[in-house]
């Protein structure tokens, strides 16, 4: 895979070509990634994969007209042709008063602390196979597990480089390691499955593969012989595996493009409480070894720690340059970059731990459910209406009373956020980390 210097040189050459063909301004973003993965099933090697990819995206501006184009052909002639085509496209594009590069005086100057995103460890296929086998063996050893969908181990590297025509030129790399296992329990129509998976930037931060496999097996066995829960309005607990998605919906509703197009359920809630005062949502793009850590965003602006929610009150919108211009605000360093115009994304997020454990959080629940898996996409980003298929465990008399499946949980995200309480079981190993979350007054219905 290419190094940062090579990626920066390619971007600079592409911008130079764009300016030569008549662009007033331009930026180029290069991405590269390589990965290896080994999968096993029932003790036998099932797949060995290696993938590598590189691409570079050019965005050009001719006045207030812009165009974007991407290639994986890095020969000088191809890059020159790409730049010429991009400028030609921009000249016939409609004018956009909000198009442009990031303000030069707001570009990142290298203030981020060391993020430690690159692991020198380079496990080979044999190492990956041993980890996958250890995970599957541990899952199959759990009493009640009758089959396996397999286990896998992977590792890889990635690189992102950004160069702009007004002087920004930076790159950063990252590594990843992961282990996962999927177990099956029961037989016939009564079969159930569950999984466990962990990812980390550094190999030493992964739990032992045996621990991951054993967790997959235990989760599977706990789901055997589910019932359909009794319907009605009741408290719902969201396991950390699925509770993170509730914060993901918040991020989508706070994204500048949704606000600018007036397609967010948070419109009209500026400066008002959305959550109880005990709930914060924190973003830390500088977390060492974080899965979404980054020193700068997709337009070259600094990424800085902030509170998306402070004592229940929503903070500033998450803005790239275009959405900030449309709203008459300053960009916040949340631009994400793909092949086209920049989007919006947040970095590492978490909801701090609450004051009590999961058992105490459900102690007063006469009838409720603990959700450990969600299905479907029944979320309306404009109204906040929420309805998703679910499975998990019934809560009766403040205690777990057995597995349940084939039901839905429904509500409205604004009402759900207003009734949210957090347990103290926060673990910081995901891109979005939350403890067990309790939401009162949701509607539960059997399938």
Mind telling me the C-alpha Rg? 24 Å
Mean pLDDT: 96
Largest sheet: 6 strands, antiparallel
The total tally of domains equals 4
Provide a descriptive summary of the structure in words:
With 447 residues, this protein is of the alpha+beta class. It folds into four domains: 4-106, 2-Layer Sandwich (PmbA/TldD fold); 125-157 and 175-222, PmbA/TldD superfamily (PmbA/TldD fold, 2-Layer Sandwich), CATH 3.30.2290.10; 232-245 and 353-446, no CATH class; 267-350, no CATH class. The protein is built from nine helices and 19 strands. Strands 3-2-1-4-5-6 form a six-stranded antiparallel β-sheet. Strands 7-14-15-16-19 form a five-stranded mixed beta barrel. Strands 10-9-8-13-18 form a five-stranded mixed β-sheet, with helices on one face. Helix 1 packs across helix 2 (76-91) and helix 3 runs parallel beside helix 4. The longest helix has 17 residues, at 4-20. The protein is globular and about 70 Å long. The protein starts with a helix and ends with a strand.
List its salient traits:
single chain; Metalloprtase-TldD/E_cen_dom; five-stranded mixed barrel; 36% strand; TldD/PmbA family protein; 4 domains; PmbA; alpha+beta; PmbA/TldD fold; TldD/PmbA_sf; 447 residues; 22% helix
